[in-house]
Amino acid sequence: MKKLLIASLLSLAFLPLTAQDIQLHYDLGHSLYGDLDGRPNLTSTVEMFRTDRLGSTYFFTDIDYYTDGAAGAYWEISREFNVSADKHWAAHVEYNGGATSIEHTAVATRFQHALLLGPAWNWANRDFTATFSLQAMYKRYFKGMSRNGFDGFQLTAVWSKTLAHGLFTFSGFADLWRDKDVAGKLIFLSEPQLWCNVYTLKGTENLHFSVGTEVELSNNFVFNNAGRNNKFYAIPTLALKCSF
């Protein structure tokens, strides 16, 4: 579970506007990996991005579903304050947290409340068809949780590239953060996405739909049926997005 469209919205950080969308992802992990057969089938995402004269605000919420109901939820909200006149440099503040479970097992995992602080560098080309962002953040889990007082870091890269006059969008992010409870004390997560923007085709301008795929690449992140997160996985999805 993670941010799914922030890369393509990054280019809008230089413009005064609001964007939001709803996405539905059919997860193929339960079909491809025997130790993930309890993984939820569907994930929905609701997200919003808005700029103002001081910077930008972004949030998203992921909800996972089994066939008989919701399995868990995760959300992030971040705020950036511009610190340079060209809006390339910003101060980044972020909160994230949530919970998830694995069907037919006793596994239940909380993503403890975490606060992240650090600098961000944002770039876009002249026509905003290519964007890139880097964030280097101090990560602090809230006191009172099982990781009381744990200090760490997170490095994040976010990118977006539109192709064929906007018909396709290749976007994604990569996160690397410290976690003392996993092998090597590092967790890696990346979710590259490829979208076909149906609304760019003649006669479909009012549909506001995109179809595509995402591949979740992770190491020490995904919990399997046994409740362990100590492996590498490459998990694709089939996705539908409606933009507003």
Question: Could you list some keywords that capture this structure?
Answer:
244 residues; 13 strands; 4% helix
Note the overall shape. globular
Uncertain runs are none
SSE order, as H and E? HEHEEEEEEEEEEEE
Please count the beta strands (DSSP E, at least 2 residues each). Answer: 13
Question: Overall pLDDT, averaged?
Answer: 86
Which percent range fits the helix content? under 10%
Provide the fold topology.
Layout: H1 6-10, E1 18-27, H2 29-32, E2 42-51, E3 55-66, E4 69-82, E5 89-101, E6 108-124, E7 130-141, E8 151-163, E9 168-178, E10 186-190, E11 193-197, E12 209-219, E13 232-243
Antiparallel strand pairs: 1-2, 1-13, 2-3, 3-4, 4-5, 5-6, 6-7, 7-8, 8-9, 9-10, 9-11, 10-12, 11-12, 12-13
Structural summary, described in words:
The chain is built from two helices and 13 strands; from the N terminus they run H-E-H-E-E-E-E-E-E-E-E-E-E-E-E. Strands 1, 2, 3, 4, 5, 6, 7, 8, 9, 10, 11, 12 and 13 form a 13-stranded antiparallel beta sheet that branches. About 5% of the residues lie in helices and about 60% in strands. It has helices at about 5-10, 30, and strands at about 20-25, 40-50, 55-65, 70-80, 90-100, 110-125, 130-140, 150-165, 170-180, 185-190, 195, 210-220, 230-244. A hairpin with a 2-residue loop joins strand 3 and strand 4. The protein starts with 5 loop residues before the first helix and ends with a strand. It is mainly beta and about 240 residues long. The model has no long low-confidence stretch (mean pLDDT about 85).
Short structural description:
4% of the residues lie in helices and 59% in strands.
